[in-house]
Amino acid sequence: MREKNSPQRPIRETKCPLCPSTFRTMSFLKQHLSASHFYVQIKEVLRKESCGSMLRCPDCGREEEAVKGNLVIHYGSRHNRVLDFADEKLRRWLKGLGVQRHQ
């Protein structure tokens, strides 16, 4: 997912620290972490913040049907919420790559 008005930031081809996948942009790495490693945890947070068949992003209010996974990826990567679910070692690694949680 691409952040508005900012180019995808290329990074050295980086291996996911949790699996063998590699990525050329920070955006793709964060999307992967959201969809492949923290999907269940992120979706649970979104369910708690939502009602009915729609999920709602607690950070910006974006809504989407619960059956789609796009909001999980949005919340984890656009708002850098992958940091909320990462252990300390992964959190330090991501911050070393410049991932900061949005306030």
Task: Give an overview in words.
- With 103 residues, the protein is an alpha+beta fold.
- The protein has one domain (10-91).
- The chain is 43% helix and 16% strand.
- It has five helices and four strands.
- The chain has helices at residues 26-37, 39-48, 70-78, 82-85, 88-96, and strands at residues 10-15, 22-25, 54-56, 63-65.
- The protein has a two-stranded antiparallel ribbon. It has a two-stranded antiparallel ribbon with strand order 3-4.
- Strand 3 and strand 4 (63-65) form a beta hairpin.
- Helix 1 (26-37) crosses helix 3 (70-78) and helix 2 (39-48) crosses helix 3.
- The two termini are 19 Å apart.
- The relative contact order is 0.17.
Summary of the model, kept short:
This protein is an alpha+beta fold and 103 residues long. It is built from five helices and four strands, in the order ββααββααα. It has one domain (10-91).
* Biggest sheet: strand arrangement: 1-2
- Average pLDDT value? 86
Number of separate helices = 5
Give the domain tally: 1
Give start-end ranges of low-pLDDT stretches. Answer: 1-6
How would you classify the helix and strand content by structural class?
alpha+beta
| Main sheet record | 2 strands, antiparallel
Distance between the termini: 19 Å
Computed Rg: 13 Å
Strand-and-helix sequence, N→C?
EEHHEEHHH
Principal-axes geometry comes out as elongated
In terms of DSSP E residues, the strand content is 15-25%
Which helices and strands, and how do they pair?
Layout: E1 10-15, E2 22-25, H1 26-37, H2 39-48, E3 54-56, E4 63-65, H3 70-78, H4 82-85, H5 88-96
Antiparallel strand pairs: 1-2, 3-4
Helix pairs in contact: 1-3, 2-3
